[in-house]
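Minutes, methods subgroup
Present: GH (chair), OT, SY

1. OT presented the first of two proteins processed in the latest run. Sequence and structure tokens recorded below as shown on screen.
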Amino acid sequence: MNNFEFFNPTRIVFGKDTIKKIDKYIDKNNRVLITYGGGSIKRNGVYDQVIAALGDRKVFEFGGIEPNPHYETCMKCVDYIKENNIDFILAVGGGSVIDATKFISAAYYFEGYAWDIIASNKKIERAIPFGTVLTLPATGSEMNSGSVITLNETKVKKSFHSELCFPIFSILDPILTLTLPKKQISNGIADTFIHVIEQYLTYPVNNQISDRFAESILITLIEESKKIFSNPEDYDVRANLMWSASLGLNGLIGCGVPQDWATHMIGHELTVLHGLDHGITLAIVLPGVMKIMKDEKGDKILQMGERVFGIKDGEREERILKTIEETENFFISIGIPTRLSDHGLDENCIDPIVQRMIDRKWSLGENGTINPEKVRLILLDRL
């Protein structure tokens, strides 16, 4: 088991009718900014619940945050906060709204070009406190300190982390997910699944606790995904999927294990260059990563096959390939086509991505061995 440090100060307020508890965790004298996305919170009643919970506090709002939040939009929000002397931000939405809010929180006090927080890993000394009301379980952003932002000007999508960017609290009410369209549910399940995979499917370090935690989340996602579309009103299914998303990327299962994140890095390129949903890009890329990197990942693929999919019979190579097949079939079972061609892309999409990898001198994967040529092979496998 590798050495590790674990820190997570976010208060989780989980369950039915918990939005009203916002009142307990925001100072009554705070000037509060609500951040949100396209406006669905005003159509489904969540906004009204939040306003009621905030009571007599002075409330402002900033909407229009994109599904892959743009730096440019975030900076408009920073200007709005300065104009209105905001004390606290309340992100109401999914991972994109929360990610944007984290960056906004950090950028407010940053001196200079705020993109350097991400591009140059500039240290954040201070951030505006914020909380979240989660409406779309997927990214785990409601319980971690990371954020992914797109600089739209150059089509670059990158992440940053800061311990000052943990939410103070997060409201997780599974009832709020009842109005989500099927596509968003599927994308959220895929995103959670691959968050777990990126921290699990590397090489063994005899960390039984982290491995077993990871496997339990993967099994839960597989089991609950079979129920969610046939019985969408089932509260317990919604609750299990929501809690899985938070646990998938709150730092716990990453303790003491090597991590990969190549699938995410390649997937980000498909998003910024071709506009594919984040969850879809991950479901496309992961089987290719598993196949091209199966020699390095073989021991953990075998472990995953046995413990998650029940694959115990056959020679080593046969079980590895069967596990990869079952992984891809899982994404297909939740309604996500897993080939580039399924989404209107052909081999012409590959060279620009590979070139961007070369330009940035990226070496991806847990061993740093996924070079641009292997990225090409991964994407060729996904045509």
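2. SY then presented the second protein from the same run.
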Amino acid sequence: MQEFEGMVHEEGRMTGRDELCDRQGGIAGGHGEGDHTFEAPTDLKQHEAEVFARQIEAKLEYGRVNHEYQKLILIAPPFFLGVLRQILNDHIQDLVSSSLDKNLVDENEKQIREHIV
């Protein structure tokens, strides 16, 4: 197992309050003129997960085409793992040898290895 490159998607780390404060507009049905609406926080979470999954898919596709790896083990929290599986193309999916639905982002390499061996 070797980490080739780390990726961070800061927008996905925002709290619900941060998401609401960073959005333009206001609350639906609020006072004032015009239509001031925003997406529900769960929609924002889904959207940011899809954006990040597409970024990962692009890196993995580049690596696949350039023969940078022979197999993959996907490890991600359950929600994100589901999103990622939907985004990955069939060629990448064929190289996935196993997957683990756990959040191990704060674990070191040794601890991660213990989960997959």
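Chair's summary of item 2: Strands lie at 72-75, 96-100.
Next meeting: continue with the remaining queue.
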